[in-house]
Amino acid sequence: xxxxxxxxxxxxxxxxxxxxxxxxxxQLLPGNPAQIILGIDxxxxxxxxxxxxxxxxxxxxxxxxxxxxxxLQGDLGESLRYxxxxxxxxxxxxxxxxxxxILSLFFTVVIGVPLGIFIARSDGxxxxxxxxxxxxxxxSIPSFWFGFILILIFGVTLQLFPTYGxxxxxxxxxxxLRSFFLPSFAIAIGNIAIVIRYLRNTILDQSKMDYVRTAxxxxxxxxxxxxxxxxxxxxxxxxxxxxxxxxxxxxxxIIIENVFSLPGLGNLLIQSITSRDFPLVQSMVLYIAxxxxxxxxxxxxLYKVIDPRIRLKG
Amino acid sequence: MKLVSKLAYITIAIxxxxxxxxxxxxxxxxxxxxxxxxxxxxxxxxxxxxSTEVDNLDPYISAATDTQSMMDNVFDGLLDTDExxxxxxxxxxxxxxxxxxxxxxxxxxxxxTFHNGSDxxxxxxxxxxxxxxxxxxxxxxxxxxxxxxxxxAPSDYEVVxxxxxxxxxxxxxxxxPILPADYEEQSTNPIGAGPFKFKEYQVGQKLTLVRNxxxxxxxxxxxxxxVQFIVMPDxxxxxxxxxxxxxxxxxxxxxxxxxxxxxxxxxxxxxQNMVQLMALNHDVEPLNDVRxxxxxxxxxxxxxxxxxxxxxxxxxxxxxFSPAMDFxxxxxxxxxxxxxxEEAKSLLQEAGVPDGFPLELTVPSDYSFHVDTAQVIxxxxxxxxxxxxxxxxxxxxxxxxxYQNAQYEATVVSFTGKLDPYEILVRYVSDYRSNFVxxxxxxxxxxxxxxxxxxxxxxxxxxxxxxxxxxxxxxxSVYIMDPDRTIAMRSDLEGLKMYPIQKFNLxxxxxxxx
Lengths: 314, 514
Prior knowledge:
heterodimer, A: mainly alpha, B: four-stranded mixed beta sheet, 20 strands
């Protein structure tokens, strides 16, 4: 319980610090949203009028307090570019990015974990060397490149998957799966490679531990040593990595959504930054920050489930 | 292990399922390449890739050019423009301008209806123009309409507009859309009187328009029954989608994209009434010296820039005006500063900077076209000792620092086309708010004043031509080119035209049976 409360309070403090940073960093960016909205031919008095309407003439501290008060009441403000409530815009985009994240996480676990175990077991054989080279490539090649290659092979040449766009899950389940398949796979490739390498290394490290020898001496089967003992101990660092990878997936989706023309949060984020749509950018960055912190929090909690020995020090 | 192998089986099963379902839908859609010729022309959906999202569906609130060029198909104004920039009647049947140039009388066509079925009458014109001009008591939405003194409707099909002062540029402003009176939902469900009706907009994904069967101009009823503008921010993705047959038209395709598509597509290209220039700030030393500006002009070889940056697809310019608007264009200025390094050097000598000087060139980094141009300029100006230092900044910052506050030495940018020469040339009037070049020539101011007050077209054009000549003689900036815009379309599509303003007129699109 103490562990839970401690982690929770650090979670909340971080969010407050992050919100202050988000707000003031964006204030420092050069570029006047009113001028950007009105474009190159705007009148100075039209710009001034819009600035007033958008509340840009007030002090940053005042605006921060307003923003925080709004956020606490669930009101994220209104987008400058779309002139619509931020929450309406963001809610439309969440399913896209969430689907990408979940599907790519699924690929990462389902492909990464078995392959990681396999490589560890066949350590030293040619197949493991070959797969090691592959994972090295997977880590170093950026996801957008994989995206284009996947489009070229499966979209243009084989015509098995659409090259762009998205269908909501509620409309057509298989259609949605098809449209998310390539982009989430493109994001997953790098992550799969990371998980494989990590898992292999920790499994090999763990196999040299004393408790493994003890287990062998007890006469346990290799298989139950691996799954009952080594794997359980190897999963903790992998879990940490998975937490980081989810955050990474959100970042990766920014580029991949552009490549596959998916109307997700990443796509929206890029647009709102270039148009200096502060309310929208702030809310999205805050949202992403909260998700990342929340994942870290969940990971912290999961440590205890996998290894009950984990306690706070001191 | 059981769990692991189970998961592996599930993955394989999903893969197969997805791939199989893929080939099925492809066939039933009939959009796959092989089936194209078998589909009926009339029922076909044309898909067009657009690089940016719709900013607002209300044409008076929207500021994005891409949005305007898409939504132009939904709306019509009193007047319209043809591909040469000539104003042609649209909702108005005819118009008359009083001798003092202050009163404009428009006679409207009868039988024009909005997409919701209501008749378009003088009342709607008044509502629309009052919104634009701020006569409804709110902020004016357009500075072009602020000069309106009053609007009256003597009858249902006649509108009389009185201006505060003579302004020949007002006529071209009448291409702005006419909207149904007191209809408040333009932002969510726009209604106009144009050739296409708004069907739906899926935020961030696509805008769907369908043919307006009741279009008043029956001769120009579109051949295409439905169009979808697909938001595709990545140009490379759009080219791949076109290759796979999922996109039919890419407006503004890059030269590299065109290379990939090769002969499999039809193209239309031409100048777009844009002026790409290297703007020089006259408030900065030594750029305040006309000889220095002339030397810079002489050292820059525009042909090389066009060849390398635009792949040869651009029209060389000599002043802040494109030949796309032929009637007002002063020809021959593009060769006034034919490249001449020796002369440039001696001009610098005369100006007291024989060894050149360092020059900061601020470039909006979002536009690779301008960044590439800047790099060629660096090379060319180094020949006369001018050491150019490129400072890339984001366009959003560019708007504030360079355009609004004129805190720069030189910059590379382009101005998009306007339908009236006044809107283009007013930038250099000494007290104009956005004269960010800080050009100051009383003769020029006088010419523009005369042009705006002129009622005779020939006389007006004469003043504008002389103004262009002044800009060239004073070497106000380096005017580089009007880059061509290229539209790529499926090989059985044709008919799209280039307009002097950002207009994407789908009435023109035809399907051939080849």
